[in-house]
Amino acid sequence: MSKGQAGRVGQAGRVGFTIALAWLSLDVRAADNARQIVDEAQKRTDVTSQRYDGLLQVFDAKGKVSDKRWTMERLGAHGQSKAVLRFTVPAEVKGVALLVVNHPDRASDQWMWTPAIERDRRIALQDRSTRFFGTDFSFEDLEERDVNQYEYVLAGDDTIDGAACWKIQSTPRESKSSQYTKSTVWIRKDNYAFARIENYVKDQAVRRLNYSDIQNVQGIWTARQLEMTDLRRGSRTRLTLDKLEYNVPMKEEDFTLQAIRRQ
């Protein structure tokens, strides 16, 4: 090989290396930017507590509708919060409660109380993918998504229900035990509210959560209606939030297994 040819090969190698570094730099910036967006979305929903009454309308694949109601109370900061869901209607599930204790570095701890048989049980990690009492929410879907439990990559822009959104790919970190391999998250650009989350097992989308009727409640942009679709079953559950309040007085001792047994 002549000196000229060697020089051209070396120059081409340097150019290729420079391009590779440029793409790597873009990827790093996109990932950093994606994390900043999700972090900002989480910061804008920081509250000390939350309470609502929820109407759940479960639509099966044939369109048949069944109604359930639950109350939800949540106390604490993101990643370290505790929540209690308790069914109030219909009679056959009244009093059934789920205690969720969220952690910043791992999956939540969950216990379910069934008053009809006066029995509580811990929900094992391998059972988190199952449906929660006939709804299309799995047990895992009822725990909190903390920004620190995922890696993020910005996947571009999109529009959901007429609102401009960032489209972000999120992947659970190794410490985060999850039934989902990855998720795509849409966050609105105007108010940083979540617009949609689509969850995948390998390359198959299995559940889609849509957020709608987004209102400013006590300074926090909040979806008053959430709809979870089980894409494999063809069923969906619509959750409508009534009597929603933030930063209401609550007691730490009400978020224990002993407390949900008493109520």
Topology:
Layout: H1 3-43, E1 49-59, E2 65-75, E3 82-89, E4 97-101, E5 109-114, E6 119-122, E7 150-160, E8 163-172, E9 182-188, E10 194-201, E11 204-217, E12 220-230, E13 235-246, H2 257-262
Antiparallel strand pairs: 1-2, 1-13, 2-3, 3-4, 4-5, 5-6, 7-8, 8-9, 9-10, 10-11, 11-12, 12-13
Tell me what you see in this structure:
This protein has helices at residues 3-43, 257-262, and strands at 49-59, 65-75, 82-89, 97-101, 109-114, 119-122, 150-160, 163-172, 182-188, 194-201, 204-217, 220-230, 235-246. With 263 residues, the chain is an alpha+beta fold. Residues 6-10 and 17-28 have low confidence and may be disordered. A hairpin with a 4-residue loop joins strand 12 and strand 13 (235-246). The protein is globular. Helix content is 18%, strand content 45%. A 13-stranded antiparallel β-sheet has the order 6-5-4-3-2-1-13-12-11-10-9-8-7. The protein has a single domain, classed as Clam (outer membrane lipoprotein receptor (LolB), chain A), CATH 2.50.20.10. The protein is built from two helices and 13 strands.
Overall helicity: 10-25%
The CATH superfamily turns out to be: Lipoprotein localisation LolA/LolB/LppX
Poorly predicted sequence stretches spanning 5 or more consecutive residues = 6-10, 17-28
How many β-strand stretches? 13
Widest β-sheet, arrangement of strands: 6-5-4-3-2-1-13-12-11-10-9-8-7
CATH C-level class: Mainly Beta
Terminal Cα separation, in Å?
85 Å
Could you name the key traits of this structure?
263 residues; alpha+beta; outer membrane lipoprotein receptor (LolB), chain A; 13-stranded antiparallel beta sheet; 2 helices; 18% helix; globular
